[in-house]
Amino acid sequence: MTTTTAPAPAAENRTPSPARKQAGRKALLHWIAVHSLGVAAALFFVLPFVFVFLTSLMSDQQALTRDLTPNSWHWDNYVKVFQVEGFLTWWRNSLLYAGLGTVLVVVSSIPVAYALAKFRFRGRHLSLLLVISMMMLPPQVIIIPMYLFWAKQLDLSGTLWPLIIPMAFGDAFAIFLLRQFLLTIPNEYVEAARIDGCGEFRTLIRIVLPMAKPGVAAVALFQFFYSWNDYFGPQIYASENPGAWTLSYGLESFKGAHHTDWNLTMAATVLVMAPVILVFFFAQKAFVEGVTLTGVKG
Amino acid sequence: MSTDTLPAKAAAAPAAASPGGRNTLRSKRRRNALRTLAFMSPWLIGFGFFFAYPLVSTLYFSFMRYDGLNPPTWRGVENWTYVFSDLPKFWPAMQNTLWLAVVMVSCRVVFGLGIGMLITKIKTGAGIFRTLFYLPYLAPPVAATLAFVFLLNPGTGPVNSLLEAVGIPAPSWFNDADWAKPALTVLAVWGVGDLMVIFMAALLDVPKEQYEAAELDGVSAWQRFRYVTLPNISPIVLFAVVTGIIGAMQYYTQPIVAAKVASGVMGGSGATFQPGYPDDSTLTLPQLVYSLGFSQFNYGAACVVALVLFAFSMAFTALLMRRRGGLIGSGD
């Protein structure tokens, strides 16, 4: 709030022509109004993070009081979280699910997206409509047969494989997002490569993919975050075996195992949020581009 | 809808002249078809196995009595009549889902548009503001929900401390049946960063000349919004509303985690936990599918609810496709 009042003295400068002065004052008031609103909104978005972080540094007792800031800073809470049984396993599982899943989705979705964007074939529009339908389908609609298949037929419940294996067969959202991106690459490049006798697969690998790097990055990020954040999947397939829990799923039980320890729970919460936010800072552009591409451009 | 690939078309002209051309054309077509098939194959398998088969299977199980242990037996429409007339939790779940689709989605769209407009007006430190507004969207849902249950905790949460400090009577949020859904709405509005980005891009695309013309006519700020901004961004507003509703049909993680943590009923398996706390006020259709199927092992009834969910989301997907065909892009 101090930032908004800082430029105010500038208005005191008595400068020429009353009309211009009035316009200048109007602009200044507008600046102040907009930035005050901005600061108020920023507080709404940032304060939850701040309170979570501050609570994560409190002592066990203080976390149960109404205090907003810690009396003494318990950085060792973060060490304690890692000592909680299972926490490291959940990290490993989350990284496996998110990492392996992302690689599989990217590799399997690229050729499909390329075909939908650059080939003309009978049923192309229908295929695209079906991809979009699949993208919009709530996972709960098909969960009963899927669960019965993976758990009863293949006996894979208690593992993350029922979540990872399907990713080798393309993901509807990744296909859609990549296709939207590939549409923005001019057909002339593809046609030129074809005329030069370049095979379709080589055209994709050598010509199109290097140009599509930002799109691939956006898809990889979205997929990584999806798996990292997924709660429903691990709940269905891994709930019976704590050794297969992911961070997102384990985090909720964390509060249960450590009933009153809001400080440790908040420290664990910070640790689950941290990788996502770190990755975002390194890949901000790709991420924002991905959001825009699915929402606005055609 | 052209059936040929681009090179095949080029070959079509000489084909008529030379007798051998027809064969070349046909083999070229076959080769192209095989190539398309090869490129599409991961998804063709995925579509069949993870969409078509389970969907048909869900329909099949909706007519069966099945508990996962005994072999399924034919039950006709009994599951359907059970869900619609005898299952006490069905209508609360339906009402909650509709409430969320209407209130949560409209709050998110209005707030997202407001923040989107604000960010286009901010001149100093726009990048920092945009990042701060966007960050909550990235917070993992379980972590964000846990944080909000703590922040809105009636006893020790900082929000109620602040509210009471300024003399506003503080509600019990996730522990009060009347306030649990508004609390979830606050959480959803906090994560409005995706809509902000979409609206921001749309607002920057509004032609400047239209604002200049409006300025010459001396219109008020509201009129400028109503007659220039809104008509230009209405397709994006519609997109945000429809995708928001489709999202509401899948709304699962936040309510179930909030209910579990706020009620204090824990444990990983979820078998003992009945979602919807307090008093079914946060029970949604996806959670009902889960609890019917995986707590009560009534797969038949769970499949009926799943199909209701399917009907809703496909109806809105169809609406989205109809009204925003441009979203897909022709690809030509």
Which keywords apply here?
heterodimer; A: mainly alpha; MetI-like fold; about 70% helix; about 0% strand; B: mainly alpha; 2 domains; flat; transmembrane helix (chain B); sugar transport (chain B); transport (chain B); ABC_transporter_permease (chain B); Putative sugar transport system permease protein (chain B)
Task: Explain how this protein is built.
Chain B: Its main location: membrane. Chain B: One of its GO terms (biological process) is transmembrane transport. Chain B: Residues 1-24 are annotated as: Disordered. Chain B: Residues 7-17 have a biased composition (Low complexity). Chain B: The chain crosses the membrane at residues 36-56, 98-120, 132-152, 183-206, 227-252, 299-320. Chain A: It is found in: Cell membrane. The complex is a heterodimer of chains A (298) and B (332). Chain A is mostly helical. Chain A has a domain at 90-253: MetI-like fold (Orthogonal Bundle). Helices cover 71% and strands 0% of the residues of chain A. Chain A contains 15 helices and no strands. Chain A has helices at residues 2-5, 18-56, 76-83, 87-118, 124-136, 143-153, 161-164, 172-183, 187-195, 200-211, 213-229, 232-238, 247-257, 262-282, 284-295. In chain A, helix 4 packs antiparallel against helix 11 (213-229), helix 5 crosses helix 8 and helix 11 crosses helix 15 (284-295). The longest helix of chain A is centred in the first third of the chain and has 39 residues, at 18-56. In chain A, 43% of the residues are buried. The model of chain A is unreliable at 1-12 (pLDDT under 50). Chain B is mostly helical. Chain B folds into two domains: 19-78, no CATH class; 88-328, Orthogonal Bundle (MetI-like fold). Chain B is built from 14 helices and two strands, in the order ααββαααααααααααα. Chain B has helices at 6-17, 19-61, 78-86, 90-121, 126-138, 141-151, 158-165, 180-190, 193-204, 208-216, 221-248, 253-263, 285-294, 299-323; strands at 64-65, 73-74. In chain B, strands 1-2 form a two-stranded antiparallel ribbon. In chain B, a hairpin with a 7-residue loop joins strand 1 and strand 2. In chain B, helix 6 crosses helix 12 (253-263). Chain B starts with 5 loop residues before the first helix and ends in a 9-residue tail after the last helix. The model of chain B is unreliable at 1-18 and 267-271 (pLDDT under 50).
